[in-house]
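Checklist before submission:
- one chain only
- standard amino acids only
- sequence pasted in full

Submission:
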Amino acid sequence: MRPPDVLWILTTQWRGTAGGWSGDPNARTPHLDRLAAAGTWFRQAVTPHPFGPFARAALLTGMPSPANGVRDYFDPLPPDARTVAHRMEAAGYATAWFGKWHLARRDPLSPLVGEAHARIVVPPESRGGFGHWEGFESGFLLNDPWLHGTALPEPVRFLGYQSDVVAGRALAWWRRSLDRPRFAVVSLEAPHPPYDAPVPEGIDRPNPTALVLPATVPRGGGAETRARRELAGYYAHIAATDRAVGRLVDALPSGTVVAFTSVHGDMHGSHGLFRKGWPHEESVRVPLLIVGGRNAEQGGRIDDRAVSLLELEGLTLAAAGLRENGPEPSAAAISMPSVVRLPDQCDRIWHGVRTRTRKLVLNGDGSPWLYYDLERDPGETENLVGEAPRAGEMADLEALSRSIRSASVPSERGAESSSQARSTSSAS
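Returned file contents:
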């Protein structure tokens, strides 16, 4: 019996709560709402690193940074890195990548925004082992993207909204007559800045003054003003990308296993902060929907385990019936392995652990920075570091964090064994 096709849809800067299915009153996501109703929503999912290249390398390899070879923002994915594409090819799948890569070698002195960056050619040996590759380095161009790859040796500009273009290119590949099951990654820039970029016809930009802001955004000052301005564009790009995702998924063969997620979120003024790299929920918590295969048996299910995107490969393969469910994940390691010196980004190295009910964050030198009781304080308004009665809890979580991080380091057992080991630790 032929195994099911598998599709990953990656977005950028899409917060875990920014969806109609999650109750966000600002979000217009009818297509993703339908996916959530037909599959499983992993409500507690987090990114291992709330910054693009680190998270992307982790997703592809199943190992966190720096163990995967990406230690700095400008580091490329090593040519010898073993990725999900290699493993799916070995399992008999045709593999393909479409869209934003953000793992090529980049000049730190060159502009990160614009056509020059978008036209950086990623050499074949640096494309993660995908059989078909059609994408772009980055450039943050939400319209008229430049694509190159397997059938496009030189960058070619495609007119249209980027999410529509990339989804359309993926669908064209999917419709080819192949004698093997398909595995593809559709990697979208949106809803990444610039938030004032045009959106396609039929998508309205919300009125900034009508947006419902979370209580964590300070009121009456510059943070609120900026948050409202940016979020108007943010939610417009969410609506446009939701539509592109819906058109793609609706055209796929019946039985395709689809995973939808984001590599990280965006603070958008919560706690007075913006962008990503921060350990707060708005930055580290991401949407994760999986529909099809075994997950279709319980449509509309909510899974509240502490799941890391390091487990995405295992979760989708289990849904496809290609792997048994692994040990119950009860905690997820999170970190920023280096300081990215860009405006508004986090200004320190840190690492930590998140369970379903707790989050502990340590500075790079091991000193405590943040400790939150997420069950009692989901908005992370009260930092419990320094409270003597919490010392035992924090020590247990620190030990758990060390255990997860050590299990993530490659060894003679290989990446798959390490991935399994990450899920065996337990906590509240």
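Reviewer check: The first helix runs from residue 30 to 38.
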